[in-house]
Design brief:
The structure holds 2 protein chains of 2 kinds. In chain A, 46% of the residues lie in helices and 8% in strands. Chain A is mainly alpha-helical. In chain A, strand 1 (87-89) and strand 2 (94-96) form a beta hairpin. The longest helix of chain A has 17 residues, at 2-18. Chain A is globular. The longest helix of chain B has 17 residues, at 2-18. Chain B has helices spanning 2-18, 22-35, 43-49, 54-61, 68-79, 94-102, 146-150, 154-165, 187-198. In chain B, 47% of the residues lie in helices and 0% in strands. Classes of the chains: A mainly alpha, B mainly alpha. Chains A and B meet through helix 7, helix 8, strand 3, helix 10 and helix 11 of A and helix 2, helix 3 and helix 4 of B.
């Protein structure tokens, strides 16, 4: 499957390379064709199946499964939960995204320490990440549903305002902020289209399709990884997994993505 | 009586002016969240992003669309930072400029394991330059044939050198990094980029 996708991608890119630079339409058409080729099969389906298995597996010091995990719709309710995240949780007193909530459940239900639960958030060749697979499974269980996080609780509104400030916060040797790449419409970095994340039409398309299989990385990646990777590119230090900033930024983006359809797990460059 | 009411109204207005707007509060919250969210990485890198200079703070606050007086203040303060090479030589080798324009290496947290490798400018990430490179971004304007209509006079060389050194001296809250001021690129590297844009032999101008 992966070989097929790579071959298709390489073929499409070869056509791109041959296209005259001045002809933007040709380049754009080829990029779109590349995307269509990719859409025929999604290796993330495998992560989703592994995640479902892990969800039901007895793990951790308490040898418990995650089947009683409360993702916001009550203990054990997986279907539709992702479409209502991030949200404020009474038991932790915090606004949480999917991955931070999974950490909470791994700690409370399975008895892992918080450090253990956060230890291996992103997979690498030969080193799978259970939490990545589980996140893919949970998100996939909302596929086709309307994305509708509550965004009403005072703490949720506060997280939105904080996230907005963080989105525009320029810093570091390159003066970059999230808005540098995602503040205007119709822009591209190299050949990659950049969504304007404060435009509901664009936010709805991209925000609700994580976790996604990223062809360029040959792996499933989560929203936490997307943000970590953005800050890497922004010449910032490593963003802490499920950190406050990572969640506030998601609340900010989630508002614009509200009303979209959950398309997780996605398939991206 | 009427003057008392007026006075009271004035006092209320003044008080209104001194109360910080709600976005100040959000900014403080954001600063706190930021400081608590980068605790496991490289400490020197953290020191470089935890504070903001005037340009970064103002452009963040105004969402990169500063009012005219703020924009003027930024341009003026940044024009004062421009430093040109002492020997007056502003054009280097376009071939080296092309390599710098292609290279995105440098200052990312995974780049620290190659301390001797020079930083790149990654101009192509945002600009079209030479026509053979089709993988170019559009965050900045196309610079294809930049030197064709502008020539390569000393005045245009100074403009391009300065623009790469510190674009904020020309356009307040530009999205382009201050490559010279922040020592992302060396003066020697900036010269090569100037040549890439202005040398009549450069592929950019074919």
């Amino acid at each position: 499957m992966r070989a097929l996708i790579m071959a298709a991608g390489a073929a499409a890119l070869a056509v791109c390379a041959a296209a005259p630079a001045q002809d933007k339409d040709v380049t754009q058409r080829e990029i779109e064709r590349y995307r269509e080729l990719l859409a025929e099969g999604n290796p993330a389906d495998l992560a989703e199946a592994k995640g479902e298995e892990l969800w039901k597996t007895m793990r951790g010091p308490k040898q418990a499964s995650l089947e009683r995990c409360d993702l916001g719709l009550g203990p054990g309710v997986v279907k539709g939960a992702y479409a209502r995240l991030p949200r404020w949780f009474a038991d932790t007193g915090r606004v949480q995204d999917l991955e931070s909530r999974l950490v909470t459940c791994m700690v409370t239900l399975q008895g892992f320490t918080e450090d253990e639960a956060k230890k291996n958030p992103f997979s690498a060749p030969g080193r799978p990440s259970p939490i990545e697979d589980i996140a893919t499974y949970v998100a996939g269980a909302s596929k086709g549903m309307t994305f509708d996080p509550p965004l009403r609780h005072p703490k949720e509104l506060e997280a939105f305002r904080t996230g907005e400030e963080l989105f525009y916060r320029r810093a570091g040797p390159h003066d970059f902020s999230c808005a540098t790449c995602h503040g205007d419409e119709g822009k591209r970095i190299r050949l990659q289209d950049l969504p304007k994340l404060t435009d509901p039409k664009e936010a709805q398309k991209v925000f609700t399709s994580w976790p996604a299989y990223r062809v360029s990385q040959g792996s499933v990646r989560t929203m936490q990884h997307r943000l970590y990777d953005c800050y890497w590119q922004m010449r910032h230090p490593q963003l802490d997994y499920v950190s406050e900033a990572s969640i506030d930024l998601q609340v900010f983006m989630a508002k614009y993505a509200s009303g979209g359809t959950v398309e997780a797990p996605g398939l991206k460059r | 009586m009427r003057s008392a009411i007026l006075l009271a109204a004035c006092a209320a207005l003044l008080a209104g002016c001194t109360t910080p707007p709600p976005e100040d509060d959000a900014r403080r919250q954001a600063q706190g969240a930021f400081e608590r969210s980068f605790t496991h990485g490289n400490k020197e890198m953290f020191a470089r992003v935890v504070g903001q200079d005037d340009v970064q703070a103002l452009c963040s606050r105004w969402r990169n669309r500063p009012p005219a007086d703020v924009a003027e203040r930024i341009r003026k303060s940044q024009a004062a930072t421009l430093v040109y090479p002492a020997d007056g030589k502003l054009m280097g080798d376009w071939r080296q400029g092309e390599k710098i324009a292609e290279d995105g290496f440098g200052l990312r947290f995974t780049d620290t394991n190659q301390p001797k490798r020079p930083n790149g400018g990654n101009c192509y990430a945002c600009h079209q330059l030479a026509p053979h490179e089709v993988s170019y971004g559009t965050l900045g304007p196309s610079l294809y044939r930049f030197g064709r209509t502008r020539g390569s006079s000393e005045a245009i060389q100074r403009y391009v050198y300065g623009k790469v050194y510190n674009p904020e001296a020309f356009t307040a809250c530009s999205g382009m990094p201050r490559f010279g001021l922040h020592q992302v690129l060396t003066p020697e590297q900036i010269r090569h980029v100037v040549a890439l844009l202005l040398d009549p032999e450069s592929p950019v101008n074919q």
